[in-house]
Amino acid sequence: MCLRVGAIIPLVHYAIANVSLGPIVAASAGVLLLAGLWTPVAGTLIALTELWIAFSQSGDVWIDIVLAALAAGLALLGPGAWSIDARLFGRKRFSIPPKSRITTHDHPVD
To answer: Do residues 26 and 43 make contact, with C-beta atoms less than 8 angstroms apart?
Structure first.
């Protein structure tokens, strides 16, 4: 949840400060990301939009690159427990089973 809030604040700030198509699309997808609705789609849209903004303008592009990396990370992590996606589709958890113990003996010990 904190990661989502940390992503939405600069997205909305730059959309208000710079009224053009790119920041408005990123801020709109940021609202979806904050709510946890369509998290992978919204995160991918924000990452692509921020990269497009970073490479289409001159000047300081690092905030756009950081926001793109943050959004890509959120898209890969997926929705959390407190999201609309988890309520609609259920939360999916992956568990990695422990490795079985491997012995170095070629023959069983009697």
So the answer is: no
Evaluate if pTM is beyond 0.70: no
Number of alpha carbons in the 13 Å side-chain half-sphere of residue 20? 9
Amino acid found at 41: V
Determine the Cα–Cα distance for residues 62 and 109; give it in Å rounded to an integer: 62
Q: Which pLDDT value is given to residue 69?
A: 92
DSSP 8-state symbol, 61: -
Distance of CA 91 to the CA centre of its chain: 16
Q: Which residue has the higher pLDDT, 20 or 56?
A: 56
| Span 39-53, pLDDT tens digits | 888 889 989 998 998
Angstrom distance (rounded) from CA 14 to CA 8: 10
Distance of CA 29 to the CA centre of its chain: 11
Q: How far apart are CA 62 and CA 41, in angstroms?
A: 23
Specify the long-range contacts of residues 48-54, CB closer than 8 Å, at least 24 apart: 49/22, 49/25, 50/26, 52/22, 53/22, 53/23, 53/26
